[in-house]
Amino acid sequence: MNAETVRTFLDENPAVFHRFGREALRVIRRGWKHYSARTIMEVMRHHSNLEADPTKRFKINDHLIPTLARDFMTAHPEAPKKFFELRTARSVKKDRPQSPDFWADMEDGTL
């Protein structure tokens, strides 16, 4: 699932982001300063599987997790600064303007 597919899915399924945000805010209200976006996603999967109405169940791809975490942090600047550990996306690294030493930097880990 590429970045464009992830964005399209989230645009077409805003309930996924809303549920993710609701769970993240519940955790923050309990006093957590750092938490796992993957754990929140697993909770969402669990609750979705328990839905009595099968039309309300949904499948969630793991590739959505980083985008959900980034979108949440953007939408909620009041959240603890490092609530989710956000890493530089591989797609961002690929799209970054390349210096003459770009590939050398990639190999030695400086990017």
How big a fraction of the residues is strand? under 5%
The dominant shape is: globular
**How many discrete structural domains?**
1
> Over the alpha carbons, how many angstroms does the gyration radius reach?
17 Å
Task: Give the proportion of residues in helices.
Answer: 55-70%
List unreliable stretches of 5+ residues.
96-100, 102-106
Total number of beta strands: 0
Would you tell me the overall average pLDDT?
Answer: 82
Biggest sheet, open or closed, and with what strands and sense?
none
Spell out the helices and strands N to C.
HHHHHH
**What's the helix count?**
6
The assigned structural class equals: mainly alpha
What separation lies between the terminal Cα atoms? 23 Å
Helices and strands in order, then pairings?
Blueprint: H1 3-12, H2 14-29, H3 37-49, H4 65-75, H5 90-95, H6 102-108
Helix pairs in contact: 2-3
Give an account of the 3D structure.
- With 111 residues, the protein is an all-alpha fold.
- It has one domain (3-108).
- It is 57% helix and 0% strand.
- The protein contains six helices and no strands.
- It has helices at residues 3-12, 14-29, 37-49, 65-75, 90-95, 102-108.
- The longest helix is centred in the first third of the chain and has 16 residues, at 14-29.
- The radius of gyration is 17 Å and the shape is globular.
- Residues 96-100 and 102-106 have low confidence and may be disordered.
Task: Give the gist of this structure.
It contains 6 helices and no strands.
